[in-house]
Amino acid sequence: MSTTVKQFHEEEAIGKTYDFQVARRLLRYLRPYLKLLLPALLLTFSLNLLGILQPKFTEYAIDWYILPRKSSGLELLVGLYVGVQLLRLAFSYFQALLLNTVGQYVMFDMRRELYDKLQHQEVAYYDRNPVGRIMTRLTSDVDSLNELFTAGITDLLGDVVMIFAIIGVMLWMDVRLTFVTLAFFALITGVGGGTVRDLLIGAPVFWVHDATVASLCLGMSAIVWITPQHWWSDRTFAWLDALGLAAYAAFGAAKSLGYGIPPVPAAVMGVVGACVGGIIRDVLAGEPSILMRPELYVTAAALTASLYVLLSLLGLPPYAAGLVSATAGFALRGAAMVWKWGLPAYRGGKG
Hints:
By secondary structure, the protein is mainly alpha-helical. The chain contains 13 helices and no strands.
């Protein structure tokens, strides 16, 4: 097959399956319609929260009324259930209306730009590209993007909210509920910060392409689950956490520099990679976040990441810079735990 014919028939994917830079370019089409999109996302959040109430209605009906053979008050519970369903119906209608409106506006803007671009192409462009392929780009592909902007993003956000809400209810019922809960927390703590960091710097998400990372997190959670509880004291976890904090901060800064991120944002990415996983864990578990504690935690990660960036700029080899910076951050975190060091609290301007 000649080169010309191949150019007419090839439909291979260009670049990565998921390109963060391309996704960010597509998101600019949503900016003019944020006033419509934000209420739709709020409705999505509300719909999923209302969805997890249905099993509780069933539980209350059985435990409070059916088993004790009581009817007084059951009508109120049924009325509340019906009210929730009607509310979900109304929310679903307005959510679909808003999302489809945004999708149509976005599709119109994209097609207008594409038609404008085609009007300014040279005649030779239409000799190199089949008309059928061009029309496919203008119709089917834009329709697919419209589907992404409406159903795709909504389903993704809805599923994430549903997962977090279910885990929250499980913890509220019993914090020791299942091994699945423990494994989830181990995984989200281990990879949460690095995932956010990789998405921000445009790198492939590390644990998605390396099965050993998730396996290690799940394996450690299994070991903790089956071993006696007194083996794993809070103090033991605190020292292990300090070691991981320093290592993650140094590694995150190094990876960010390797992807061409400027020094200051690279140091921030080191802190993000080290701390965000713990922040997500604390939020889901209903514990006070590390950001709200006066102890030196984020400061230790900031010292590690900043020191690594500085030593790298001074020409120190990566391994040496990582060892020195991680040791400094671990020492600061350890000293803070031993001697109860902390940052001074804000006193609201009072002398």
